[in-house]
Amino acid sequence: MTILKKVKLLPLILIFAIFVVSCSSSDSQQDIAKVDADSSLTEMNNGKLEKVQEIFYTIPSPMEMASLLKKAGTSYNAKNLNNVNNVVKYTSAKKQAINLGIYGADLSYASIFNQNQESIIYLSCAKQLADQLGVTNAFNNETMDRIETNIENRDSLLEIISDAFYTIDGYLKENNRQNISALVITGGWIEGLYLATKISSESKSVPEELKKRIADQKYSLGDLLLLIDSYPADEGLADVRKDLSALQDIYSQIELYRESGEVTTDEATGTVVIGGASSSNMTDEQLNLIAAKVKEIRSTYIN
Known about the structure:
By secondary structure, the protein is mainly alpha-helical. Helix content is 64%, strand content 4%. The model is unreliable at 1-48 (pLDDT under 50).
């Protein structure tokens, strides 16, 4: 593996960040066992398991949200991302899983905007957390070499990153750790929504498509809560459910309207495309309330 050759070209502050994230924790395996111990997955019947799988795939990926932000004409702002130095603070399985999702969203965001140097750094954060969660094959030497080879090819890079996170999701499911995967998904969803609301609050005129997408997260939030509720005995998810419920209270005041249309999947990106026009009655005040609540929730996850 030769990816470090490219890293040496980065500014000193970025090299320091990579050095910081190279540290690891020896306590996480005990935490993983604690988070997994009460999982109700083994008691699920086949019907319930299929329903959980459906929910997993209805929640938009961080890659989708990042793509939308670029299409909306927004500018890249690294200050909006989770500080890479924070990664050493995440020593519990819950924090590691949530922030794997958060750093994954940040990695997608940096990659979509062709920020190759920062992509490498956020990749390092994701790799460390994945390793600590026991998913070492997601970012193995072969994957890292592929990333280095394709670092200037955005489409190929995004495909490799997506494959890595599918590997993480698949490993966790195969090993009866869907609750951990639910935390990863929650982290990615929260970060994607945070970036969208943060950018909208910084814009003099919020792009209409971005505003509609933020409103549409009412649907995704409902699916995410159903996913969390699939693990009622998991204490690690109790606080997460409380956070999401507080956000749902705000979304409950928003009405969504959608014309019927064909549902298709983009084979290249895996993005689910729902046909038909959509609209909502979301006010600027409600948008600000969502932004404030998401910022509050995210703060508890990254600190």
